[in-house]
Specification:
5 strands; 134 residues; alpha+beta
Length: 134
């Protein structure tokens, strides 16, 4: 799905650890949320970087689907505004609406889950989509 975009950006796509569990979700909407995260990760990761998708069982009730990158990372100001509609990170390409992360949050919260973010400026970011197991 993102192979061409990754190749053009000279960024590697990787799959980290995965888990084999059932999750309560609308498949198409959660895939849309993951696609938004991968798209952002590819846009903010420099040449030679890596974007990794992984899954992890957190406990008996929840699982985390994660997208990590070795990109520019986020400042505290960016983290504070990240899920605001129409907000865009500094250096984002023109022509974007600034709705992607707001959509991600809305989709995951509609599933009774949450979005968690870890980020270090200059190192990269990891977005965790925490969802209920079936």
């Amino acid at each position: 799905m993102f192979e061409v975009q990754a190749e053009e950006a000279e960024v590697a796509l990787a799959v980290g650890p995965v888990c084999d569990v059932l999750v309560r979700m609308d498949h198409d909407r959660v895939v849309q949320a993951l696609a938004n995260l991968v798209d952002n990760a590819l846009r903010f990761t420099p040449e030679g970087g890596v974007v990794t998708l992984s899954g992890e069982v957190l406990d008996q009730e929840t699982v985390s689907l994660s997208v990590s990158d070795t990109g520019v990372g986020l400042t505290q100001d960016a983290l504070d505004n990240l899920f605001s509609r129409f907000w865009q990170a500094e250096g984002d390409r023109k022509g974007r609406a600034g709705l992607g992360l707001a959509i991600v949050k809305g989709v995951i919260e509609a599933h009774g889950g949450e979005v968690r973010v870890e980020s270090d400026p200059g190192v990269g970011s990891t977005f965790h989509l925490v969802l209920q197991r079936a």
